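ugh ok fine here u go
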Amino acid sequence: MEGDAIAGSDGAHGGRLRTAVSELDLRSPSSLEEALTIMHDEPRMIVAGATDVYVALNFGTLPQKRFLDIWALEELRGISLREDTLVIGALTTYTDLINSAHVVNRLPMLVEASRLVGGVQIQNRGTIGGNIANGSPAGDSLPVLAAVDATIVIRNADAERRAPITEFYTGYRTTVMRPDELIVAVEVGPVHGKQWFRKVGTRAAQAISKIVVAAVRDKAPRIAFGSVAPTVVRVPKTERALADGASIDEAALVLAGEIAPIDDLRSSAEYRLQVSVNLLRRFWAETE
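structure:
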């Protein structure tokens, strides 16, 4: 989040910010080393594109008062291949993902998901690291990363460590990260098999997902759902049933018993369950 964005008086809907900006403490490091040192000394809320943080400030629902703006850290940008691993910097935007030849060739369903994240303005500012850290179960990129067994690279002032995304979330918007750590990159190994992505919402884009699913069809299918649980989830029982030769009807019954969506303002549990089963069937039919 840039200083000017915090200091502005107009909210997202043309009104005044409900959070008093005079109470906010923002630091903007010029290097990753400086950022990690600050986090070691005084952990802060990390902001970059601020596509979620600014909304929370506007509605006055953000309890944090101390922020670390990492938008200027070029060390956290870029997409590359390291041997046979796709490495995506945490500050890579959705626009960067859409325009990357590496991502288009290796992970086309991430490109598809990125195209459905908000409008162009959000795609230009929103980052993959921010989507991961935010941890919303409706995050469009998260099922893609879960379906390909992505690894989250985390760093503090003393060390770097890696966490599989399937073990990264411990609950609703909670992760294994420690207060002094930053997400610095995402790593994805080679993906074999047909990739498939679908988002169901009020609209195709600029709407929060009611259901989002990403899947890879290989000898061992990998399927991940968003918006059906407190976190993005894989469905190992359904995956195993398909790998063992179960019919799609049998796999659909397994899935119906494996996920337990909830009712909320955006949709009902019954609707989510039925759509999830329908999407499983579509995935299997369209990747034959």
